[in-house]
Design brief:
The chain is of the alpha/beta class. It has helices at 16-31, 51-65, 74-77, 92-102, 116-127, 148-161, 177-187, 218-221, 225-243, 252-264, 388-393, 405-414, 424-443, 456-459, 461-465, and strands spanning 7-11, 40-45, 80-84, 109-112, 137-140, 167-170, 201-209, 266-267, 274-279, 297-304, 314-319, 326-333, 353-359, 363-371, 379-387, 421-422, 448-450. Strands 7, 8, 9, 10, 11, 12, 13, 14, 15 and 17 form a 10-stranded mixed β-sheet that branches. A 7-stranded mixed β-sheet has the order 3-2-1-4-5-6-16, sandwiched between helices. Bound molecules: 6-O-phosphono-beta-D-glucopyranose. 6-O-phosphono-beta-D-glucopyranose is lined by residues 210, 229, 327.
Length: 477
């Protein structure tokens, strides 16, 4: 196993992501004994801080967001250092280099928790030699670039100085237990594979909707929007894991091969195959342009150009400020060949539906038709339900040590295992899929607004109605 590296250089160290996700995840790993003994964090950001005030800021952030952080942890905080600097050509990167070198850290892990523009400035600093790259690893937050051209450019730049296996294009969905379960569910069971194709599946729906708005992330989100923030990465990943071919083996390269191949097989959508919208009040959020045309909701209809799925439409949906927070993949199966049991309107046959719920109420639900109790042969819907929580509550605590997406992502990246990150070819294919949507976004001058709390199913309804379909709402409790 590769030796875990001890130094993490965190760009964007005073940002929201650092506070909410990265520091709490590092703290959990520290507590669980999963960080190397000599772990150190060098924060880099524009905020006017020094080591002491950075530690105070980290302490407050962890008190707010880290589970179990009930009192300050000096041993953990003392591992943190800070370098102030910008991304636009000041001497910040030089001071950072000196600080790392003084610390005799020969091969750091660079974590770019930055929006794409600032991230590309750091990559330029690798290219110009201002930051040492010898043996370094790079962890890059999504979105990786802002479109296909910029992602290609970033890939080419990075790969000149950093080995591909040292580049971690982060997507915390890749590390969620319930996302990994999509693969286990498919490849540990014989029941579904025979049905997993155009002969039995009518269509596939994937949703990742949220009830919250952009909150205080407007500065990052505006100009990025839902397609770059969610669809191009998290949502396409869910689809890929649910529909790709079986990997040759259960190793990360085989899984990444299949993911990349599947994404290559998706046809980019035509203009009539997507809709987007923006929630009312978005333009008043801090950091958002009052005339912003950035979409906060998108739904898209895709076709997959391969033998297994030809002719099976896929509907994707994601958005903020909607009526419910749900991430799930749903397979709606075809109708039965003959309705033998239909009887004077008494019998309403629903299609079989299989929902794989990522969160909340993580689980799997299969809806069936069964006989209603009583004299008549009437069919009523019923469901087979599996809840992830039932599984974990029975486990001894040692086996229950579930890590969140960010914790696992960091653990793997620090250990030098890139399996929980996007590979260069896959990320470029994902940008190719959403390219027409981004082009249209650029032209939009009058985006349609929706009321906060609207149902995503209603906003996407037109797209499905054209095909005589509706958005499926599963009833997980
Ligand atoms: C992040 C996006 O990657 O994922 C956020 O930047 C979004 O906008 C978040 O809220 C959703 O993640 P999760 O794990 O809550 O579904």
């Amino acid at each position: 196993m590769t030796e875990a590296r001890q130094t993490l250089v965190l760009f964007g160290a005073s940002g929201d992501l650092t506070h909410r996700k990265i520091l709490p995840a590092l703290y959990r790993l520290y507590q669980a004994g999963r960080l190397p003994a000599s772990f150190r964090l060098f924060g880099y950001a524009r905020s006017d801080l020094d080591d002491e005030s950075f530690r105070r800021m980290a302490d407050l952030a962890m008190a707010e967001y880290a589970e179990g952080y009930t009192e300050s942890c000096p041993d953990f905080l003392d591992r943190m250092f800070y370098v102030r600097g910008d991304y636009d050509g000041g001497d910040g990167f030089d001071r950072l280099r000196e600080r790392i070198q003084c610390d005799s850290c020969e091969a750091p892990n660079y974590y770019l928790a930055l929006p794409p523009q600032a991230a590309s400035k750091v990559v330029d600093a690798f290219a110009s030699g201002r930051l040492p790259t010898d043996g370094a690893r790079v962890l890059m937050e999504k979105p990786f670039g802002t479109d296909l051209a910029s992602a290609r450019h970033l890939n080419r730049q990075l790969q000149k100085y950093i080995k591909e296996e040292h580049i971690h294009r982060i997507d915390h969905y890749l590390a969620k237990d319930t996302v990994r379960n999509l693969l286990v569910f498919r490849f540990a069971n014989v029941l579904f594979e025979p049905l997993w194709n155009r002969h039995y599946v009518d269509h596939i729906q994937v949703s990742a909707t949220e009830t919250i708005g952009v909150e205080n992330r407007g500065g990052y989100y505006d100009g990025i929007g839902v397609v770059r923030d969610m669809l191009q990465n998290h949502v396409l990943l869910l689809l890929a894991f649910a529909a790709m071919e079986p990997p040759l083996a259960n190793d990360s390269e085989s899984i990444r091969d299949r993911t990349a191949e599947f994404l290559r097989s998706i046809d980019p959508p035509a203009r009539r195959d997507f809709v987007f919208g923006q929630y009312e009040g978005y333009r008043d959020a801090p950091g958002v342009n009052p005339q912003s045309q950035t979409p906060t909701f998108a739904a898209v209809r895709l076709s997959i150009h391969n033998w297994r799925w030809h002719g099976v439409p896929v509907y994707l949906m994601s958005g903020k400020c909607l009526d419910e927070r749900v991430s799930e993949v749903t397979f709606v199966f075809k109708d039965i060949p003959l309705h033998l049991l239909e009887d004077n309107n008494y019998t309403q046959m629903d299609p079989n539906v299989l929902s794989l719920r990522i969160h909340p109420s993580e689980g799997i639900r299969l809806s069936l038709g069964v006989k209603a109790p009583g004299y008549r042969d009437r069919v009523v819907p019923a469901a087979l339900d599996f809840r992830y929580a039932d599984l974990t509550s029975g486990l001894p605590s040692a086996d229950r040590e579930l890590f969140s997406g960010y914790e696992r992502v960091l653990m793997e990246a620090l250990a030098g295992r890139p399996g929980l990150a996007w590979r260069a070819d896959a990320i470029e294919s994902a940008w190719r899929v959403v390219a027409p949507i981004l082009d249209e976004e650029d032209l939009t001058t009058n985006i349609s607004l929706y009321v906060p709390g609207s149902a995503g199913a209603d906003l996407a309804a037109g797209l499905l109605a054209r095909d005589n379909r509706v958005w499926h709402r599963s009833e997980f409790e």
